[in-house]
Write a structure and sequence with these properties.
192 residues, alpha/beta, 7 helices, globular
Length: 192
């Protein structure tokens, strides 16, 4: 996993957060993974003049490297971009949120099972996190056509002012489809 720590002294962030009615102390952070999206996100944030720190369990020696403990201590935003594996399933559970010191905003655009929704909801209700931005949830059906269940807190969560859930569309763009097609062509060509 990779994490980004960004300084909030950038006027764009300060103005945007102020417009939402929020103020943060010193830093604005985002944890990410070892996927190209994480690298691109870091590049964009650096391009805005933001300070970026990162954590990756499998790489070292990269710009802004930090420990996961440092990320949990200093990040105000945590964004997951992890592949689903036995190691990452349930990664952002109740214990993870309890170890975060700055009540982070949480974004998950990777896989729903990375972040147990009930743990995230409980963390939001208890004040351990500030809000949720989810493109994926652990309740999605395997075919991605609907939810397997709706927990008792589902309607309350949808109405919460600090929760935004989108219908698993983060990767639906012309560029993403072109890239997926190229990967498929490359894989088929490799088999032939």
């Amino acid at each position: 996993m990779r994490a980004l720590l960004v300084d909030t002294t950038h006027p764009i962030l300060e103005d945007g957060l102020a417009a939402l009615g929020y103020t943060l102390d010193r830093c604005y952070g985002v944890p990410l993974a070892e996927l190209p999206l994480a690298d691109a996100t870091g590049l964009v944030l650096r391009g805005l003049g933001l300070r970026v720190l990162a954590h990756d369990a499998y790489r070292s020696g990269f710009e802004g490297e930090a420990s996961l403990a440092q990320i949990q201590a200093e990040c105000d935003v945590i964004s997951f971009h992890l592949p689903l594996s036995p190691e990452t399933k349930g990664y952002a559970d109740a214990r993870f949120w309890a170890e975060c010191a700055r009540q982070p905003w949480v974004i998950n655009t990777s896989r729903g099972n990375i972040l147990p929704l009930s743990d995230a909801w409980n963390a939001l209700q208890s004040g351990q996190i500030r809000g949720l931005g989810l493109d994926v949830v652990d309740l999605e059906a395997a075919n991605l056509e609907g939810l397997t269940a709706r927990p008792a807190f589902w309607d309350a969560m949808l109405q919460h002012p600090n929760v935004l859930i989108t219908p698993h569309i983060a990767g639906w763009s012309t560029q993403a489809f072109a890239r997926m097609a190229q990967i498929l062509v490359d894989r088929v060509a490799g088999i032939a």
